[in-house]
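Hi R.,

As promised, here are both runs. First protein below:
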Amino acid sequence: MIVLKSQREIDAMKKAGEILASCHKEIAKMIKPGITTWEIDEFVDDYLLKHNATPQQKGYKGYKYATCASINDEVCHGFPRKEPLKEGDIVTIDMVVNYNGGLADSAWSYAVGNVSKETEHLLMVTKEALYKGIEQAVPGNRIGDIGHAIQTYVEGEGLSVVRDFIGHGIGAVIHEKPDVPHYGLPGKGPRIKEGMVFTIEPMVNIGMYQTKMDSNGWTARTIDGEYSAQYEHTIAITKNGPIILTEQEK
């Protein structure tokens, strides 16, 4: 069942989103060769505490960390670690913030120092794909319109869209309906309505779209070892279109 949110609930999620976005802006200043994702995770834990918020994914199904930190060929759910990031790496930091019961979810991919032209293209296309998906998130459209816009753009740029992991509704808990695939056919899926709140979070690969799981049972990586990137926003649907609750451009 898709739960439509009240304005009060959306306002609470917006406050969580503002904290999350400001945290990502601080992380962006930290990314450089030599830093570890362990240090970033500790920073996030401390930052949220100082802002009277908590990392919602810590303890979720036994997950131990405030963030997911996925490096290079890791598609999602990478564990923070003490291995330093290197020049030319990319890292995706994903987190869910709880502020007074309001949740917000956002992932962002970062270049570590100078990266290759191929990697620059991956990051650019993935970020652009997110916003092309958001453009379709208007009342009266269908969820499939979002995925179709993303898939068409990404594949037109010679890259591939991950199928195994998708966007999702969010509210009282991290994952709600609707499911939001980043591929598919226009005019299919649930109708988009005012009051819906969900994530759009395309994961895009340089090579094949298939993924494989690490032995830890959490981390997914590309099947061919090519780089993967991800950008994610939490959005609320209003009668006038989508509002990005995790917007950093403020």
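And here is the second one, sequence first, then its structure tokens:
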Amino acid sequence: MGSYKNLLFIINKHSGRRYVPGIKEKIHHICAQYNAVCVVEFTQKRNHACQLAREAAGRFDAIIAVGGDGTVNETARGLLHSATPMGIIPTGSGNGLARHLGIPMNCPAAARLIFNSVPVNIDTFTVNGQTGVNVAGLGFDGHVAGLFSARTKRGLWGYTALIIRDFLHYQPVPVTARMQGHTITSNLFILAIANSSQYGNKASIAPSASLTDHYLNLVQVKKIPLLHIPPFVFRLFTRKLSNNRYYSCTPCRSANIELPHPVPYHIDGEACGRARRFEIRIQPSSLRVLIPAHRMEKI
């Protein structure tokens, strides 16, 4: 385990359902218990976490992203190919990467766990040149991500409400994916690029995904008949999804994807607009992340 005596915490007040009152004071108190000096910065605008992390790289023992997957993504972009590790205190709506890593959803518990963590190099990826850390997706989940980002009310139930409202009306699109010497053509409802196992909220879209294997998981989901949705959702939330007539998960290092018209997409839950061509690339061992010591064999 590393020695973390000089830490920067980058806090996004607007992540998740609500701001946690007194989080700055709690962080200072916990750091004092471990004889660590900490600096706290609050983000002021989009991409501010990236700027803060990039400017601070090399000056701290670790830089901690306090927010959701969007804040984690921004902080990670500022630390790519840096020796400075990133830690996570999850305060977002889904917290997919933190959940994959086994980081507690309780802020004080997550802060204490920093001092019992190990720095590990993990993979990241790019979608049309934009960096992702957790999961990206196009099609229906890109559509929902765009709607969700415009809402002031966040959380699992708000996300679920959007899915239920638009599921019947959103139509699958023809997708051509070229990877590793072969081509897949299918009408897809969702195409996800998974680096970790889950979207967030324990929804494991790629249960076998690893952050350190130098592979991505190209997940293809066809539109599921209403009768088959309950068992699919059960498997999604119990890490039991496996290849079948509606779902497939294929490991790949890169992929080129084409559609007949632009579709909405997201990277780490943040809406990115629309595109009809996607170039996906793995970035092996490109980010140093603090991993709870007891989770080392499961990342």
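A quick note on the second one: The first strand starts at residue 6 and ends at 11. Let me know what you think.

Best,
J.
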